[in-house]
Amino acid sequence: MIDIDIKINKLSHWYGNNQVVEDASINVKDGELIALLGPSGCGKTTLLRLVAGLIPLNQGEIHFGENNVNKWTPQKRNAVMVFQSYALFPHMSVEENIAYGLRVRKINFEKRQCMIAEIMDKVELSGYEDRKIQELSGGQQQRVALARALVVQPDLLLFDEPLSNLDEKLRVTMRQEIRKIQKSSQITSIYVTHDQEEAMSIADRIVIMNKGKIQQIGSPKEVYEKPVNKFVASFMGECNFFTDNGENKMLRPDGIFLNSQGDYEGKVIWVEYLGSIQRLNVDWNGRKLIVDVFNKEIRDISIKQGDIVRFSFDEKAIVYL
Questions:
Q1: Residues of the chain with CATH 2.40.50.100
Q2: Which fold has domain 6-230?
Q3: How far is CA 197 from the centre of its chain?
Q4: 116 and 99 Cβ atoms separated by less than 8 Å
Q5: Tens-level pLDDT at each residue, the chain (321 residues)
Q6: Are 48 and 13 in contact (CB under 8 A)?
Q7: Which CATH architecture has domain 238-320?
């Protein structure tokens, strides 16, 4: 494994007459985890496979460090993919699955066993060497797939929706584990997901795509709080769009505060109880606003449909679009 930056420069790709990636440019720093985020069909998996060398490049350049890798095979790129289906061999034990890439690379037995033991300890699978894949839980299978990818010491780790087959609770646990292992290994990684929360929790930076085009690149905080356009704002979570004093504005539901002395007034048309918050739909002069109110802040106040409420905007949280 070597230290490299990944430079993706003006990549475009077509399937027949259908352009699925358009003029995509990303610089991935050494040791960084980048999430490619967007709706189904936006081109993120195609972009990942172009970087891996699994499909030939139509247009643009990919550099690993100073090397143009456009014509390199996947093996020469030393990039390893972790798939959502895990792609494990059911007839092999856990240890045999993890050892597969090392045997292909003709690593001698003694060194191979040391490398396997080390990686199994890192992904907390020690003691499972002889288990069959069918005997493992979904989370354990994902750990085997991750161990098999890491053990060959790749220069680049690529994740294609790796947690989509797991239930919600296990997804949260596994994304934390992937983040911890990736950071301790310091392997440059690109992670494809359609899940906003997953991207925000796991990535150093997020690349948001739509219809083949990159819309914004930034930290989770930047893309959530300072979206560059309406698509990014709405894709990253609930938001309010409105025109005020001739200006187009966006404000998240938690940027609106109920206040008996508030600047504005509206009528509650819907109330949802969501545990720590209540989500209100408020009619504000014919415009619908979504307002999130922390229950601890209104513990002694009952808000119901039809109530008239006063509220204010957090001016610092307003985004001008």
A1: 238-320
A2: Rossmann fold (3.40.50)
A3: 7
A4: yes
A5: 556 799 999 999 999 999 999 999 999 999 999 999 999 999 999 999 999 999 999 999 999 999 999 999 988 999 998 887 778 889 999 999 999 989 988 899 999 999 999 988 888 889 999 999 999 988 888 889 888 988 888 889 999 998 887 788 888 888 888 898 888 888 999 999 999 999 999 999 999 999 999 999 999 999 999 999 999 999 999 999 998 888 999 999 999 999 889 999 999 999 999 888 999 999 999 999 999 998 877 776 788 999 999 999 999 999 998
A6: no
A7: Beta Barrel (2.40)
